[in-house]
Amino acid sequence: MEPPRRFGRPTLEEAAGLRNRVMEETLGLLRVTGISGLSVDEVARLAGVTKRTIYRQFGSKSELVDIVVDQEIDRLQDGILSSTNEASPIGKLQCWARSFFDYVVEPDNASFLNYLCFESIDDPCLRSKLSGWHMRMGLCAL
């Protein structure tokens, strides 16, 4: 159990921990509810912070989602790039495909990718972002 939080401004280390907790809870809720069910109130409750803290750190719900999605893409890219030490283009492609497959077969990751795809159907802004994320991953745009 964590020690009780002191009053006043958090230290840099505490602030980083709070930010990470907010992002983890946001990702968890996105996997379960999608963006339509994502509530800043619920993220704040689960992370043990105030809504004000979230808005001060991230600006808006949309920016929070963007940052969380970018972090997940970074995590996927890091996994793919770290496993790709092949010299030949075919070897690199095989490593990339295997790493991507390993990522998407994890239930939490599959839920997250489903969220992105399904939410982008009705949300033109998210659809545009999803296209950019695909390009960043080296996939063809939808």
Mean pLDDT over the full residue set: 80
DSSP helix count?
7
Helix fraction, binned, reads: over 70%
Radius of gyration: 17 Å
* Distance linking N and C termini: 45 Å
- The proportion of residues in beta strands is under 5%
What's the assembly state of these chains?
Answer: single chain
The ordered H/E elements are HHHHHHH
User: Total number of β-strand segments?
Assistant: 0
Q: What spatial form do the alpha-carbon principal axes imply? A: globular
- Structural category is mainly alpha
Main sheet overview: none
Poorly predicted regions are none
Q: Describe it for me?
A:
The chain has helices at residues 12-33, 40-47, 51-58, 61-83, 89-104, 107-122, 124-137. The chain is mainly α and 142 residues long. Helix 1 crosses helix 6 and helix 6 packs across helix 7. The radius of gyration is 17 Å and the shape is globular. The chain starts with 11 loop residues before the first helix and ends in a 5-residue tail after the last helix.
Features:
mainly alpha; 142 residues; 7 helices; single chain
SSE diagram, text form:
Layout: H1 12-33, H2 40-47, H3 51-58, H4 61-83, H5 89-104, H6 107-122, H7 124-137
